[in-house]
Amino acid sequence: MESIKINKLEIENVKRIKAVKIEPTASGLTIVGGNNNQGKTSVLDSIAWALGGDKFRPSQAQREGSMIPPTLHLVLSNGLVVERKGKNSSLKVTDPSGQKGGQQLLNEFVEQLALDLPKFMESSGKEKAQTLLKIIGVGDKLDVLDRKEKELYNSRLAIGQIADRKEKFAKEQPYYPEAPKELISPSELIRQQQEILARNGENQKKRDRALELHAERNRLAEKVNTLKEELERYQKQLIQVDQDMNIAYKSAEDLQDESTAELEASLANIEEINRKVRANMDKDKAEDDASEYRKQYQELTQQINDTRKSKTDLLQSAELPLPDLSVKDGELIYKGQQWDNMSGSDRLKVSTAIVRKLNPKCGFVLLDKLEQMDRQTLNEFGQWLEQEGLQAIATRVSTGEECSIIIEDGYVKGQEHEEVAAPQPKTTWKAGEF
């Protein structure tokens, strides 16, 4: 599909213009030069008004001092003739077959930003990026990924802060390596103590029994001495008692009493021990918590990286207006530079390419105040326009050879013209003639 351009334009009595006729180059840069206040910008304002409608109409459209209403006459590359003339500057659009049309017909191929490129260039970086994403058809998808990345980033930030606090808390906790792993139960210690005391009590009973037998033996021996008549009977008993006594002493000699000192010390220090155990448990818990949050942080980091890769892949798969043009963190990036770091020519290239992408049918843009560019930059920009098949009509405060035409006092320098001094019954302009 071939884009539509401006073949000819004829302007009379608009703002500072008295009478101007221009035939812009089909591709490349047409520079309208001249000194200040000569009518250069009036040329661009006239084109914008002719093609863009009444919202581009200058607040004081008719040239000051002129009695004749403004007249605009444009011939487009698709054969349409666009005219505004008469007291109300009514619009008339005529196609090659003679059929009439209006603003709606022009709107099909005239991109509004092409008529007002500064509006795009002066917008914020995010607005420029949104415009680009919209025209390449990935804006909605990228918005979803942006929101996802932001949510993941915020979650990771919160998790990271918790992990930092947990790690700091864990480092500040005291640790007692000598403390047991589990809390000590007082009731368990008492139960163990009671069992030991019970066993010791049994041992004591056995010792007491041995002593009792010993006393019994002495009593019987005395009785043997005093009661000879019962000697035989008591001797038998004595022998038996001696045997029992020996057995009892032999059993008692092997018995060892268990100490309760350790349990008594544990009971006395149970609160201190348990305090250390709790401290160790708190430290272990804090370290485990910090480790878990750090793991979550790493997982969120991976999800953020995956989301960013999806955004990069989405942009790389899209058909961008320029090589090296992309969007990063919601900002336009060209050749690795954000808008405020781009050169003047790169800004114009980016703006022009994006505006063209908005409406490929529109093959021209209007550019004001190119005096910021040096000659070499102008040549490079013009060559790029020709390469892209784009038409740019621009103004520049200059009267040098880089200018396609020079405006002086409302006229094109070198064109024959007659000063219009009074109302005329009809215009002598025709399509393609001046």
**Strand ordering within the main sheet:** 2-1-4-5-6-7
Determine the structural class based on helices, strands and strand pairing: alpha+beta
Low-confidence stretches: 419-434
Mean of the pLDDT scores? 84
**Which series of helices and strands comes N to C?**
EEEHEEEEHHHHHHHHEEEHEHEEE
The CATH architecture of the domain at 6-110 and 359-412 can be given as 3-Layer(aba) Sandwich
User: If you consult CATH, what is the topology of the domain at 6-110 and 359-412?
Assistant: Rossmann fold
| Shape, per Cα inertia axes | rod-shaped
Going by CATH, the homologous superfamily of the domain at 6-110 and 359-412 would be: P-loop containing nucleotide triphosphate hydrolases
* Annotation field: number of helices: 11
Q: Report the CATH C-level class of the domain at 6-110 and 359-412.
A: Alpha Beta
**End-to-end span in angstroms?**
31 Å
Coiled coil: 203-317
Keywords: Coiled coil
Pfam family, one: AAA_15
InterPro entries: AAA_GajA/Old/RecF-like, P-loop_NTPase
Could you characterize the architecture of this molecule?
51% of the residues lie in helices and 15% in strands. The protein is built from eleven helices and 14 strands. Strand 6 (90-94) and strand 7 form a beta hairpin. Helix 7 packs antiparallel against helix 8 (231-253), helix 7 runs antiparallel to helix 9 (261-317) and helix 10 (344-358) packs parallel to helix 11 (375-388).
